[in-house]
Design goal:
187 residues, 2 domains, 9-stranded antiparallel sheet, 2 helices
Length: 187
């Protein structure tokens, strides 16, 4: 073998030794990892969690602080969780507060629609004939990072009738404080 051929063989040996050492280091650094292992399973259910609100800007309700707390999990067939709504007058007097149990959660991208039935209500700002307990209300939340939005069914329809399960309005209100996290599951 010529000296030139011996030099090529040595260089090839060095390259192969380096490659083998690199592969061994990767195998040690990632024990149990292999191409045959499946990827992490996607979440089994959707989630909508958060607290947000601010001041209303509608005629007759200017500067009324509102807050919506929602903790919903599941899918349209099997949903669970709670919600709480608080509405004060500008002077801090309670206008309405009610909470209930979630009966539907549906997500698509960064948007969630959830409904629930009111279980408890204190509503000194509403007429005495308005009954909230037992009514289904709907919320729609858009998770935009820092500029989340929320919509609520009684803003346009009042509390006269329950909304259908899994329905809510467009998320028309830009949250001024707090926020929400929406994590969805594809059907």
């Amino acid at each position: 073998m010529s000296s030139r051929q011996k030099s090529r063989v040595r260089r090839a040996g060095v390259v192969l030794t380096g490659l083998a050492a690199t592969l061994a280091a990767v195998a040690v650094a990632a024990p149990g990892a292999s191409a045959a292992e499946p990827a992490a399973a996607p979440p089994a259910e959707s989630h909508l969690v958060g607290k947000g609100g601010g001041k209303l800007h509608w005629p007759g309700f200017e500067n009324h602080p509102v807050r919506f707390e929602i903790n919903a999990h599941g899918n349209p067939a099997t949903s669970r969780g709670t919600f709480r709504v608080t509405h004060h007058l500008p002077d801090g007097t309670l206008f309405a507060q009610f909470d209930g149990e979630v009966d539907c959660l549906m997500t698509g991208g960064n948007t969630a629609v959830t409904t629930g039935v009111i279980k408890r209500a204190t509503v000194p700002g509403l007429p005495p004939n308005v009954q909230l307990v037992g009514k289904r209300v709907g919320f729609t939340v858009q998770d935009n990072g820092r500029a989340d939005r929320v919509g609520w069914s009684w803003a346009t329809n009042g509390f006269e009738e329950s909304v259908p399960r899994c329905s809510g309005p467009a998320p028309f209100y830009k949250v001024e404080q707090g926020g929400y996290v929406v994590r969805g599951v594809d059907f």
